[in-house]
Amino acid sequence: MGTQVLVPFRGCEDSTRHLKLMGDLGQVVPMKYNPRDEDYVKAVMAKANVVINLIGREFETRNYSFEEVNHGMAESFIFVYTFFYSSRSVFMMILYIYLS
Considering its fold, how many domains does the chain have in total? Predict the structure, then answer.
């Protein structure tokens, strides 16, 4: 039995291609999802033992603002985690702080 790393992504399928080289065959599993849909978030977290929120970006996109990504989506992830999965897994939130 090995470890699988589920990598949810919201961009094009080529954006996670470089991550597959980081593990053995079948170890890194990219999963396309929509962070605005709670069912997708539940599906991604369903089999996880550890959840690490790394959704933040250094720049805004035309579809996602800083407020939505760094506050709204993080809040919805925490809600889904605490409501459905808090008894069996660990949730880590990585905060990005950029000082210039």
Answer: 1
